[in-house]
C-alpha cells in the first residue's frame, strides 16, 4: 500500500481533506480516558494532529517514511515507520498490552489484513472500554456540473486503475468486517456519517486527483488520466459558476466500537 503513495506524498499532504472537529469530538466522547491514542496508517498526519489536541500522547505510524516527512511535528506525537505487518515483538515495543484508550485508522482500513490487525488492536486497547475508530471518505462533491464530469471520469477513466480494496470505500465501510461492540449510547458500530469541506480552486482539484493511487498506477502504465480532453471538460464545468474557489465536500463514514472483555 505504501508504494502507491510515495511518489505523490507532497500532493497527498497538501490536497487531502482535513477531518472535521465533530468527528473527533464524537470519538473522544466514547473513550473513558484520554491518555494515549494510536493512529495507524497516519500518512501525513491529518488525523494525528487533531488527536494530539485531545489525547495526552499520540503514537502515529505508517509504512511510508516519505509520507511521514510531511506530517506536522508536535511534541506529544511520536511518529514511527513500521513494516506492513507488525510482529508481536514489534507491537510490544510500540505500546504495552492494554495501554491504549483509542486506535484510529483513517482512510486505510481497506488496505490492511483486518484479521491480524484486529487481534493486535484488541491486545493493545484497554479492557473493556478501549475504542477503535475507522473511517473513510468517498467521492468528493462540488456541484451538479463538476460532479457529472467527475462521476464519468471516476467510473470510466480511472476505475480500471484502482486497487480492488477501493470497493470497500465505495460501500462506505458497510460491508467491512468489524468485530467490536457498540460504543455507549449507540445501537451498532455504524457507519456514522459526517462531512468535511476543503476550499479548492481548479489547480487544487487537479492536484487532488493526482494524489490518487489510481492516478499513479495509470501513469506507471503510460496512461495520463488528466489528458487534455478531461482537463477541458473539468475547466468548462468548474468555470460555469464563475467562482474559481469552491467548497468541495467529502462525505465521511465512521465505524466505531469498543473492545469489550476480549
Automatic annotation (TrEMBL):
A GO MF label:
S-adenosylmethionine-dependent methyltransferase activity
Please name the source species. Rhamnella rubrinervis
Task: Give the matching CDD domains.
Answer: AdoMet_MTases
UniProt cross-references to InterPro entries, sorted A to Z: Methyltransf_11, SAM-dependent_MTases_sf
Tell me which PANTHER family the record gives.
OS01G0307686 PROTEIN
- Name of the molecule in the record: Methyltransferase type 11 domain-containing protein
Q: Which residues form the Methyltransferase type domain?
A: 39-131
Superkingdom in the source lineage: Eukaryota
Amino acid at each position: 500500500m505504501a508504494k502507491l503513495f510515495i511518489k505523490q506524498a507532497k500532493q497527498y499532504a497538501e490536497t487531502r481533506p482535513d477531518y472535521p472537529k465533530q468527528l473527533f469530538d464524537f470519538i473522544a466522547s466514547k473513550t473513558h480516558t484520554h491518555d494515549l491514542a494510536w493512529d495507524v496508517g497516519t500518512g501525513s498526519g491529518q488525523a494525528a494532529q487533531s488527536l494530539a489536541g485531545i489525547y495526552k500522547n499520540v503514537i502515529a505510524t505508517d509504512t511510508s517514511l516519505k509520507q511521514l516527512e510531511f506530517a506536522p511535528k508536535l511534541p506529544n506525537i511520536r511518529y514511527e515507520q513500521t513494516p506492513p505487518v507488525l510482529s508481536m515483538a514489534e507491537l510490544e515495543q510500540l505500546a504495552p498490552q492494554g495501554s491504549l484508550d483509542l486506535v484510529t485508522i483513517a482512510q486505510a482500513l481497506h488496505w490492511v489484513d483486518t484479521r491480524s490487525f484486529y487481534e493486535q488492536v484488541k491486545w493493545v486497547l484497554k479492557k473493556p472500554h478501549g475504542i477503535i475508530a475507522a473511517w473513510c471518505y468517498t467521492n468528493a462533491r462540488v456541484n451538479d456540473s463538476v460532479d457529472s464530469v467527475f462521476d464519468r471520469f471516476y467510473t470510466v477513466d480511472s476505475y480500471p486503475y484502482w486497487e480492488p480494496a477501493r470497493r470497500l470505500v465505495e460501500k462506505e465501510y458497510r460491508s467491512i468486517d468489524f468485530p467490536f461492540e457498540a460504543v455507549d449510547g449507540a445501537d451498532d458500530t455504524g457507519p456514522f456519517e459526517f462531512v468535511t469541506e476543503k476550499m479548492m480552486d481548479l489547480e487544487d482539484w487537479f492536484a487532488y486527483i493526482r494524489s490518487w493511487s489510481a492516478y499513479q498506477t495509470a501513469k506507471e502504465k503510460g496512461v495520463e488520466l488528466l489528458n487534455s480532453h478531461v482537463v477541458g471538460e473539468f475547466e468548462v464545468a468548474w468555470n460555469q459558476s464563475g467562482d474559481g474557489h469552491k467548497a468541495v465536500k467529502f462525505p465521511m463514514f465512521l465505524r466505531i466500537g469498543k473492545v469489550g472483555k476480549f
